[in-house]
Amino acid sequence: MILQVCRRTRPLSLPLLSSLRSRLVSFTLPRPGSFPARRTLAWSLGVVAVVALSACGKKEAPAVALRPVVAMAAVADTHTVQSSLPATIEARYSTPLSFRVAGKIIERSVRLGDSVKAGEIVAKLDPADNAKSAASAAAQLSAAQHQLTYAEQQLTRDRTQAQENLIARAQLEQTENAYAAALAQRNQAQAQAALSADQLKYTTLVADRAGVITAEQADTGQNVSAGQAVYNLAWSGEIDVVSDVPETTLGSLAVGQKATVKLAALGGKQFAARVREVSPAADPQSRTYRVRMTLEAPTPEVRLGMTADVAFAQAAASGASAQAFTLPSTALFHAGKLPAVWIVKADGALELRRVDVSRYGERTVTVSNGISSGDRVVWQGVHTVSAGEKVRVVTPLHPEDFAS
């Protein structure tokens, strides 16, 4: 009966214990004996039953279940730390082509994508008004030159007569003054004629450098003002690779540093480049820094505007070898806006640690700073844990799911 009661799933009640005790009290042994002996035996059995039932009803407190997380020890990569960023191919120099005078476009000689040579005519304005201004200036110059010739002859005669005392000194001074005025008018007319001639020449737009037309801003028949862009010319020669880098990568870049440029449009073909310029200030919107690199030995198949993937070789600090750790993308967490990972400490508690990401792969991230070899990094379940929480480390059931 005690075993049957112990099998109950709910605690024993006091009435049940009393009933059990009364049954044990009335229990008699089959062998003969005195009444006190039977009563003493009954009381003894009752005490034993109560103690057994009391022990049967006790329950142990359940152990706290630790949250299982997939974590693995960090192993340093064997290859050089690389920081890969998107970039574009641009000409080192790119300038707008515009007329230096206002007018109406009557002719355009080149189109978008055309290659031009230095000195080649690319567009023309209606020259009628400027031609008239140039003719008027030329006529004024001719008249001023005639006045200067007359004043020069008069000055020569007066000087000869003054030496013989045939004219007064005041008359000679008036002649000299008239000559100086005629000379100034001639010089002014000469400068105005040259300016009018230049304005007439400016009605023809000429490419001052060899290059490629990369944009068209005006068309034939349109009235344009002085300085308004008609074309955009990318100069031939050196080609730049332009990339916007985050501030976490900026500290590892320097002018003259080498880089590898991979062009997807050319089947992943790689070119060598060198950092030429690093912007001293961040872009106010993106908070990134513009880096310009000179592409070394570009081939004719490299076109302006192509997208590229740039890999910078990271220099190790203080002469030590830089270490990189490749982790699955699922291990990356964010402390605010900064990347971080969860580290399982020796006592099983979690620690959120800030890291620097040097490369984002398709399924992996490369961490260049923040963790060390042997640190147990949580690979999965990073969004379900909290700092200081104790966890139980388990290995991934399918390691191939985390392969790069």
The overall average pLDDT, rounded, is 82
Query: How large is the share of residues in beta strands?
Result: 25-35%
Number of helices: 6
Number of strands: 23
For the record, give the distance between the C-alpha atoms at the N and C termini, rounded to a whole number: 65 Å
Kindly describe this structure:
There is one protein chain. The chain is α+β, with helices and mostly antiparallel strands and 404 residues long. The chain has 4 domains: 2-57, no CATH class; 70-79 and 321-402, conserved putative lor/sdh protein from methanococcus maripaludis s2 fold (Beta Barrel), CATH 2.40.420; 83-92 and 237-313, Elongation Factor Tu (Ef-tu), domain 3 (Beta Barrel), CATH 2.40.30; 96-206. It contains 6 helices and 23 strands. The strands form 5 sheets. Strands 1, 17, 18, 19, 22 and 23 form a 6-stranded mixed beta sheet that branches. A 6-stranded antiparallel barrel has the order 2-11-14-13-12-15. Strand 17 (333-335) and strand 18 (338-344) form a beta hairpin. Helix 2 (14-25) runs antiparallel to helix 3 and helix 4 runs antiparallel to helix 5. Residues 1-12, 24-30 and 315-321 have low confidence and may be disordered.
Give the structure's gist in a few sentences.
The protein is 28% helix and 32% strand. It is built from six helices and 23 strands.
